[in-house]
């Protein structure tokens, strides 16, 4: 590998200079160019977007995959650009265990038959969960990762360049300020005269000789030490630079003033170049930061897709569990009714609560329990009072003759019976009558 030592040393020097300058700015010892308030608001908004996007992304990953080991494994496969191996869901694994247990304990026994039915339901639940995880990953997690790994990295890179341009601009301002101060000092007229030539100093050897001759030895000793005799010292002069001239307080010649004028002109030129580069970089960074609004719009669309996929998943789970309950032929709860004529609005109560507060007729025979004859809906008469209108929210296909098929947005008459499952009501539409699920209805007051 070819190393450019000069470039490496130059970059190290620039890095050290900027570090010193940045430290001085923190302590208030150096001038700092401030950004406008709108730009600062854009920076704060971008930082907040990045921070919350990371949190939402991590928590969504936990929701979709609660197992931390599995998440680490998927992360490694992703970084290695390898396909993540297919993994069974918890529901599918439970279905497998139940099916194996039914085979070993006896598939013809009541317990074995029930295990097989629950196993099939859990298998369908696991498949629905797999589809939900895949859909949520594609429609929600992938756009969030693309923002953090793509757009945000570009924004961070341009912000670092803007920071470097600002430090260069402040350094140029400081150099120009010092050059103007030195120029002003060089143009001042001194109130003293100097005996030696201006803007020159004695060489080091001449200065040492002068110090020796300032206190000369006796002539006899000089003859002993210097056989050739004593000779006067020889001096020569060295020119001073403008900076040394100012430091020693010597008189400044017109040439020196011209040198300082050139230094000021050079500093002004560097300042103009640095200001132009800073303005250009600030405009590029501003455009990227203003693009955060488009990122929010995209994330909003992805959030709607995530909610849609989650709604579909839970609706599938509810349908599968209803089918399982029908197959098992059992109802989990006991209906508890009330004779109050009205019930709270549906918006403030759950479907189960709404069903529980429906008026009932104590004289009507209850629904058949397991092992008894099924309910004959033709013999069930609606109560004289207490029926309610309901609007159908979704299409519903009747599973058997005891249920009533529903179409979305149609109005039907519903009422409850004592001992009936709170998740179901009796619905009437014209001459047709049957059980309808409460979750598919909006009860009207």
How does the overall form come out from the CA principal axes? elongated
Order of helices and strands: HHHHHEHHEHHHHEEEEE
Specify the helix fraction band: 55-70%
**CATH class category label of one domain:** Mainly Alpha
**Secondary structure tally, helices:** 11
Question: Mind summarizing the main beta sheet?
Answer: 5 strands, antiparallel
What is the end-to-end distance? Answer: 82 Å
The H-level CATH homologous superfamily of one domain, spelled out, is Arfaptin homology (AH) domain/BAR domain
Corresponding CATH architecture of one domain:
Up-down Bundle
Radius of gyration, CA atoms, in whole angstroms: 45 Å
Task: Give the mean pLDDT.
Answer: 75
Q: How many beta-strand segments?
A: 7
Counting helices, strands and paired strands, the structural category is alpha+beta
Enumerate the strands of the largest sheet in spatial order, edge to edge or round the barrel. 6-5-4-3-7
Low-confidence segments, given as residue ranges, are 191-206, 234-240, 246-252, 331-374
CATH topology category name of one domain: Substrate Binding Domain Of Dnak, Chain:A, Domain 2
Strand content: 5-15%
Family: Belongs to the endophilin family.
Subcellular location: Cytoplasm
InterPro entries: AH/BAR_dom_sf, BAR_dom, Endophilin_B2_SH3, Endophilin_SH3RF, SH3-like_dom_sf, SH3_domain
Protein name: Endophilin-B2
